[in-house]
Design a protein that fits this description.
Layout (H helix, E strand, L loop, with lengths): L1 H5 L14 H18 L5 H38 L1
């Protein structure tokens, strides 16, 4: 008896029909709309603050790279002159 219950007929792939192109696009659009409603958009104040932070970090990193470049150029000049 256990052998009979363990043996099941394999399911055919043709039993489950794939939805059509327009049904898939429609479902995608519905899912996209529902996910967009879940997004918590930042306020104008948050956007301005985050933009300021990004610009400040860019300035600091840019200055750091400029200093390192200047040091290497100075050292290269010392080596080539000697």
């Amino acid at each position: 008896m256990a052998e009979q219950s363990a043996k099941k007929a394999p399911e055919k792939k043709s039993d489950k029909k794939k939805p059509g192109f327009f049904a898939r696009v429609s479902r995608f659009a519905r899912d996209l709309r529902s996910e967009t409603k879940k997004v918590v958009w930042p306020s104008k104040k948050q956007v301005i603050n985050n933009t300021g932070v990004v610009l400040a970090v860019m300035a600091v990193v840019g200055a750091g790279i400029w200093i390192v470049d200047w040091v290497f150029a100075f050292l290269r000049g010392l080596i080539l002159v000697a």
